[in-house]
């Protein structure tokens, strides 16, 4: 990996850090009740702690049979109130011992039980002993003995496995772990290297599974565990820094607690409205907005139960700040073309783990490395890789790269490459997209753009990733599919679809239409005028244009919510507005439907009300009134609170007198609040 760019670390910050001793992830635990404001808390932190305490109380409440999850037991342990459900804990231990996929999610909860509550009288000696035995018997990485179908290799699983191995290994440093015969100390040392690499790449380059309203919920328990329990201060501080950066990303890309932006990985049920977003409870903790949709949300319980880490006040201030409009630009991930510049090799198995974390399994540059890793780690019986065993002869003959390259629009479609994301938010709505991302590739689980008004009133388009309305998790009806060229400036967006599927390869992928999710029942008014479908929800308006004629689905899963445009090439335009910008809904409708739209092939001209003449094609830059609009090479963060260069260190953030200063390499993390924001706890 190349040496990241560095900005000079201000001497004044180092002086403050040394004098104050603020070199740890957070303060030493106090005797205050969980979630209670502590003496010296600023107002935002005190409010955060109160929300965390309220959530823990709700999560710990007794629930009907079948409604009690493992992380709810963590909430009960933290509050030392409601008795534990031993059946739930034992069932989770059975699941982990069987090494089912996603066992590492549960292991994150067991790590917190082990390190924070081992002395709790609520845990019976028998249950505690079984928990410890399970953690000593577990398989923590793909290089250990044993055949199973656990997923070790996606971005979120990598940190879940590594953090658990590091922390459990340190706790049982001199004990032999039964799966491979190594001591806990040996496990901990090996896992720390993986953790340091993972944290460094996330800090400098962000997440490959960008803006994921599913998988961020699975990265975070591991990170909070590291910030709370890492025996190495440097690991704890770096985990806290990455947490702050991730929370800052979230609060700048949400509307009323809804993470309604583009997503590197998501599922249909998380974008067809926001009621099932896994990040919703987290946003409630950070901002007070967000739907409390899960008692057992593993991120929010881990965070609310944390006794060392508290989100930086500057992040909470950004979440609370009310601006009439906010633009957030962000760049995340790396391109395979730049692998060598980052010190990555297509022949190195350790680097192969990074490539797998960005979904680069079958790209022509990585496919030989993938098969070599499958062979080395004996993954031929793993459920994910088993379907590709028939290609072993081609791999042995050295033919895979040449087979993959001509169909790379499909085989490279899962690659979560560098992405430039954009969101525009007003008090009434948000419009967000991944600009010009992977145009012409077939994606898996990606979500390219979305307009968000409230939990139910969301609008977006896609090419179906499968003809089956019930997908298989990777090929879905609403996520993935053939990517359009999407460009956005503020409240106007253009999506150009020119689908060229490979029917001879996978006929199911040649779905002969594009479609929009436009849930009529979620709007107060819906109108169709010419090529436009328009909706009003409260004071927010959305207009959706299709260059092809559209029809409402009358059958299937989404009658009245699915708008279909037959044909594999189409131009969709989305325009948003509110009373402040464009007057009444009648005014908005008149302005939008009378605006000139000209589509010739893939060349598009749109006179966006209040913005100007937008012009773009598949092959030409995006311009407004003749001026080019940047849609690539964004900074790591570019928003009203921070301009932070991609690949740079340190990170500085200031909001309303709250400051966060973070140097990943020292490492050091300094948080401060204005003196007037301090409250006294009683």
Give a description of the structure:
The protein is of the alpha+beta class and 682 residues long. It has 21 helices and 28 strands. Strands 15-16-11-7-6-4-3-2-23-24 form a 10-stranded antiparallel sheet, with no helix packed on it. Helix 9 (216-229) packs parallel to helix 13. It starts with a strand and ends in a 10-residue tail after the last strand. The relative contact order is 0.11. Residues 1-31 and 678-682 have low confidence and may be disordered.
What are the salient characteristics of this protein?
single chain, ten-stranded antiparallel sheet, six-stranded antiparallel sheet, globular
In short:
With 682 residues, the chain is an alpha+beta fold.
């Amino acid at each position: 990996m190349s040496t990241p760019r560095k900005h000079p670390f201000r001497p004044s910050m180092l002086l403050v850090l040394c004098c104050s001793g603020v070199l740890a992830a957070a303060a030493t635990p106090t005797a205050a009740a969980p979630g209670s404001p502590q003496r010296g808390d600023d107002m935002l932190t005190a409010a955060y702690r109160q929300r965390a305490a309220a959530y823990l109380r709700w999560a710990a409440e007794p629930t009907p049979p079948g409604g009690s999850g493992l992380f709810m037991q963590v909430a009960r342990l933290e509050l030392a109130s409601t008795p534990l459900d031993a059946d739930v804990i034992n069932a989770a231990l059975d699941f982990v011992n069987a090494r089912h996929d996603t066992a590492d999610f549960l292991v994150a909860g067991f790590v917190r039980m082990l390190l924070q509550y081992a002395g709790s009288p609520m845990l019976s000696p028998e249950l505690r002993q079984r928990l410890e035995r399970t953690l000593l018997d577990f398989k923590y990485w793909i290089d250990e003995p044993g055949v199973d179908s656990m997923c070790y290799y996606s971005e979120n699983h990598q940190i879940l496995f590594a953090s658990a191995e590091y922390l459990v290994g340190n706790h049982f440093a001199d004990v032999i772990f039964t799966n491979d015969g190594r001591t806990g100390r040996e496990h901990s040392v090996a896992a720390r290297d993986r953790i340091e690499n993972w944290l460094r790449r996330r800090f400098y380059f962000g997440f490959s599974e960008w803006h994921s309203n599913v998988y961020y919920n699975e990265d975070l328990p591991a990170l909070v565990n590291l910030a709370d329990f890492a025996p190495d201060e440097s690991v704890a501080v770096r985990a806290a820094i990455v947490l702050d950066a991730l929370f800052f990303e979230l609060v700048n890309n949400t509307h009323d607690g809804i993470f309604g932006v583009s997503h590197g990985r998501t599922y249909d049920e998380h974008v067809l409205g926001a009621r099932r977003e896994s990040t919703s409870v987290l946003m409630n903790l950070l901002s007070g907005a967000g739907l409390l949709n899960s008692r057992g949300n593993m991120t929010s319980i881990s965070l609310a139960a944390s006794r060392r880490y508290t989100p930086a006040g500057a992040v909470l201030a950004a979440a609370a700040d009310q601006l009439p409009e906010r633009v957030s630009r962000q760049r995340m991930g790396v391109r395979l073309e730049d692998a060598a510049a980052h010190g990555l090799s297509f022949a190195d198995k350790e680097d192969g783990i990074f490539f797998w974390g960005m979904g680069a399994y079958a790209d022509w540059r990585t496919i030989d490395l993938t098969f070599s890793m499958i062979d080395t780690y004996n993954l031929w019986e793993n459920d994910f890789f088993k379907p590709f065993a028939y290609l072993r002869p081609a791999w042995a003959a050295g033919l895979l790269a040449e087979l993959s390259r001509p169909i790379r629009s499909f085989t490279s479609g899962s690659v979560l490459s560098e992405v430039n994301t954009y969101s525009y938010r007003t008090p009434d709505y948000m419009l967000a997209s991944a600009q010009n991302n992977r145009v012409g590739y077939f994606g898996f689980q990606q979500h390219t753009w979305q307009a968000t008004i409230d939990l139910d009133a969301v609008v977006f388009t896609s090419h179906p990733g499968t003809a089956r309305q019930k997908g298989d998790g990777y090929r879905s009806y609403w996520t993935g599919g053939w990517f359009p060229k999407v460009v956005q400036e503020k409240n106007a967006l253009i999506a150009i679809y020119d689908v060229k599927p490979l029917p001879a390869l996978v006929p199911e992928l040649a779905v002969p239409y594009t479609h929009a999710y436009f849930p009529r029942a979620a709007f107060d008014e819906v109108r169709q005028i010419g090529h436009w479908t328009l909706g009003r929800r409260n004071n927010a308006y959305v207009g959706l244009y299709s260059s092809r004629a559209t029809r409402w689905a009358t059958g299937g899963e989404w009658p009245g919510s699915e708008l279909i445009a037959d044909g594999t090439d189409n131009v969709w335009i989305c325009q948003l507005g509110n009373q402040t910008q464009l007057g009444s809904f009648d005014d908005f409708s008149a302005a939008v439907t009378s605006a000139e739209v000209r589509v010739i092939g893939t060349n598009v001209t749109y006179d966006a009300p209040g913005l100007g003449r937008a012009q773009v094609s598949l092959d030409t830059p995006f311009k407004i009134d003749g001026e080019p609009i940047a849609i690539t090479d964004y900074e790591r963060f570019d928003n009203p609170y921070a301009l932070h260069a991609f690949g740079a260190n340190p990170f500085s953030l200031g909001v309303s007198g709250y400051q966060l200063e973070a140097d990943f390499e020292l490492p050091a993390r300094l948080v401060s609040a204005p003196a007037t924001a301090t409250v006294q706890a009683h």
